[in-house]
Design a protein that fits this description.
The protein has 365 residues and is an all-alpha fold. It has a domain of 226 residues. Helix content is 72%, strand content 0%. The chain has 14 helices and no strands.
Length: 365
């Protein structure tokens, strides 16, 4: 399999859907004249008509329909549900044992194992890419690992009710990267929504007194890495099978995080300081989080495949309200005034941006 081109360049030219290049032709069943140096085949069609037929044969067939609204809704809803579950469960696990690298290593090992089991039990699916394909997928693996590790470290330093605000610059970073790398321009009206998102971030951070500075810094950094991830993954999900991508990046990420956990002495500190009761509680929460994370990977890849990067970012921002409600309900976190206004402004700006982009799309069509 040939090495895929750079994802930034390829994404800008990536088609919305695949087409079937095969065309149907009517072929005469009458016998052909004998072949000889003087024999010719006469066409009953005019030359101009033949040219039209030949040019039409180059057009793609419309038999491949775009994803249905039901499929898009199911993909987005599943991604939001499992993302909230993973966030809540990961935060609970980190509250018991603060070892983000070890947690990610075990989760990714579980995900890779589940994919292997699926291939073993399924009669219609099989592995097409092997671990040696890392050279083809090195950019994809790097971006995924960077994004997930950044989000997890941010979550370990901030409460879930503030997690959405700390990563509030997700949409502005996506728009900026789309302009710088894909040359996609955004008009003034949609940028008004982006301004509200930035205002929500500033308002939520400016008056926050219960979160360390490193949590805010990691939120900004993870927003940037997630914006890169959303655009980069869009290319690869169209080029390679979903389960193969999940298996390869989960396997390498598990090994990478385990090595970092050992060399950073995180694993050593866990073994030295954590009690048996804490290990048991951490393991049970981690098992539930790993199951949710496995389905989250499938839902995320599916959503990115059937939606645009900006739509993906919008769903990420929109689930902040539900995530905050879950944090207050199940984790008993305190919802301060600045967090309430910050989430409202971020969600309102995201909604305004969505409506403006949809209006532009309809006017263009």
């Amino acid at each position: 399999m040939s090495r895929p081109p750079s994802y930034w360049a390829s994404y800008s030219s990536l088609p919305d859907q695949d087409y079937d290049d095969k065309n149907s032709y009517s072929v005469s069943t009458s016998p052909l004249p004998p072949l000889s140096s003087t024999s010719t085949i006469q066409s009953s069609e005019p030359k101009d008509k033949l040219k039209v037929i030949d040019s039409e044969s180059q057009l793609p067939s419309s038999s491949s329909a775009p994803p249905s609204r039901l499929k898009i809704f199911f993909a987005v809803a599943s991604q939001i549900l499992f993302a909230i579950l993973v966030t809540i469960l990961n935060k609970q696990a980190l509250n018991v044992v603060r070892a983000p690298l070890l947690m990610l290593s075990l989760q990714m090992a579980f995900t890779a194992t589940m994919v292997k089991v699926y291939w073993r039990l399924s009669s219609n699916a099989s592995q097409t890419l092997h671990l040696s394909s890392v050279k083809q997928l090195k950019k994809f693996i790097f971006v995924k690992i960077l994004g997930i590790v950044s989000k997890t470290y941010c979550l370990s330093f901030v409460p879930v009710s503030f997690y959405q605000i700390s990563r509030g610059l997700l949409l502005p970073f996506t728009i900026l990267l789309s302009f710088l790398l894909l040359r996609q321009k955004t008009h003034i009206f949609p940028l008004t929504g982006c301004f509200l998102v930035m205002l929500g971030f500033v308002f939520g951070v400016q008056f926050e007194q219960h979160v360390p500075f490193i949590g805010v810094a990691l939120g900004i950094w993870s927003s940037f890495t997630t914006a890169i991830e959303s655009v980069a993954v869009k290319h690869y999900v169209h080029e390679f099978p979903t389960f193969d991508l999940i298996y390869i990046f989960a396997t390498y990420m598990s090994a990478f995080c385990l090595c970092l956990s050992v060399f950073s002495l995180e694993l050593f500190n866990v073994v030295k300081t954590v009690s048996g009761a804490e290990v048991t509680k951490f393991s049970l929460i981690l098992l539930a989080a790993s199951c949710s994370n496995f389905y989250l990977n499938i839902a995320t890849f599916t959503q990115i495949k059937v939606t645009s990067p900006v739509s993906y970012m919008i769903s990420v921002a929109a689930r902040g309200v539900l995530q905050t409600i879950f944090a207050v309900t199940f984790l008993h976190e305190t919802l301060y005034v600045n967090r309430i206004y910050g989430v409202i402004l971020i969600l309102g700006g995201t909604t305004l941006y969505t409506l403006a982009k949809e209006r532009e799309r309809r006017m263009a069509n």
